[in-house]
TrEMBL record, chains A, B:
One Pfam family matching this protein: cNMP_binding
Keywords: DNA-binding, Transcription, Transcription regulation
Gene that this sequence comes from: ftrB
Presence of keyword Lipoprotein: no
Domain HTH crp-type: 147-215
Domain of life: Bacteria
Name under which the protein is recorded: Transcriptional regulator
Natural source organism: Tistrella bauzanensis
InterPro entries on file: cNMP-bd_CS (IPR018488), cNMP-bd_dom (IPR000595), cNMP-bd_dom_sf (IPR018490), Env_Response_Regulators (IPR050397), HTH_CRP (IPR012318), RmlC-like_jellyroll (IPR014710), WH-like_DNA-bd_sf (IPR036388), WH_DNA-bd_sf (IPR036390)
Amino acid sequence: MRPNDLPGIRDLPLFRSMDEASFAELMNAAYLQKFPRQVDLILEGEPADFLYVVIEGCVELFSRHAGRETTLGMVVPVSSFILAAVIRDAVYLMSGRTTEASRILMIPSENIRAIFEKDGAFARAIVRELALDFRVMIKEYKNLKLRPGIERLANRLLRLHDQNAAAGSFMLPYDKKTLASILGMTPENLSRGFATLRAYGVDVAGNTVTIADVDDLRAFAKMNPLIDQ
Amino acid sequence: MRPNDLPGIRDLPLFRSMDEASFAELMNAAYLQKFPRQVDLILEGEPADFLYVVIEGCVELFSRHAGRETTLGMVVPVSSFILAAVIRDAVYLMSGRTTEASRILMIPSENIRAIFEKDGAFARAIVRELALDFRVMIKEYKNLKLRPGIERLANRLLRLHDQNAAAGSFMLPYDKKTLASILGMTPENLSRGFATLRAYGVDVAGNTVTIADVDDLRAFAKMNPLIDQ
DNA sequence: CGGAGCATTGAGACCGGTCAAAAACAGTGG
DNA sequence: CCACTGTTTTTGACCGGTCTCAATGCTCCG
């Protein structure tokens, strides 16, 4: 694997500060692979054999239980996933599948752990990464536990709106079924949620969303920096 | 602060592997304090000035939003809390209060971060701790997103039953109001949940719970090692 | 014995889920 | 360009779980 195959990898917070030899060693052991959409990459319950980095495309993390399925997160370039399982040499707690054609870097867990043991800068980078992931997770948990579905939707729309700054409208980055699963609601309910938010100036056409009066929606959503950041 | 004031601290996974000088430095900067019950230790939104370690007693982590309040976790001896906020030099995402008279060790964040930067073993210990906390958090999130309230209750009872191995009955470690909040339900609903579980051999008298037929309850609960561990 | 707080129970409302069907949409091949 | 097909989204009707509010019972303590 040639380093110039990997724009962005070395720049990732996770790999930026580690020393050159360690990085080379990691990349040497790694595989860069292309996957079509809807390929299962990992399955919850199986041992964490690889750390994954999404270079291109998109990966959906999800979990199944008792006939239900829920989306736990979407991973977009360039970032890694299931770091915690790799570090603890444990079993995956989430399944993962591509939602579009993707290029994925797979780094064997043993190599991650070996370098983690000897490269202090890498260990510190992992700390920072995990601490961040953990805080994101807490926020999602609070979001789910403290807010009704429609407020979760409103806040998600506001977040998307703010990311596509200035523009009056934006595109939903995934289909509505997936969005519903992320928000912890059914597609039917999401649909009704959109209908309700029309009264607050939200217009949905296909997957294009226009927010007429952001302040109005913001008031309804009860944004909270300790949940929405 | 004398080290022999602190049984268990040095044995914590977080501090076990760090070198003696670093540990002494940390303990030197730390405060060991006694608090009565119902004292607010930290408030969400404020900067993380200290890492906390519960030596004796119990601390409830909780969060408020829009007039609601929910319990995010209970910290019992001997373990630390809000490590992620300290590492990221960020704001607390949870509030914390004692639920009984407690002895708490408070270590200034700057000292944690300083030693984290220079002691590789400590950095690695933090990684392991955060990775574990993260996985516990994921499980809680899945629990909430994938299961109805009564199944969360059933599984929680089974977990408590298993912890008090062999014994036919056990005590709820907190009052029912708190248990309800942990489980993400109202006290009224918890009460009805207990009533429903009577049909599966669960008997509740005060805060003493007896499970007549564990297998029966287990079948109902749909235990899942990827949620309940 | 009385009061405070906690736990339980009941009634009603609401949010969210299920099921079924219609409508909108995208992609395909004629 | 248009029918055809399969998928996604929406809508409607209905049901169940959960919350709220209120009243009652219980227990612990002063």
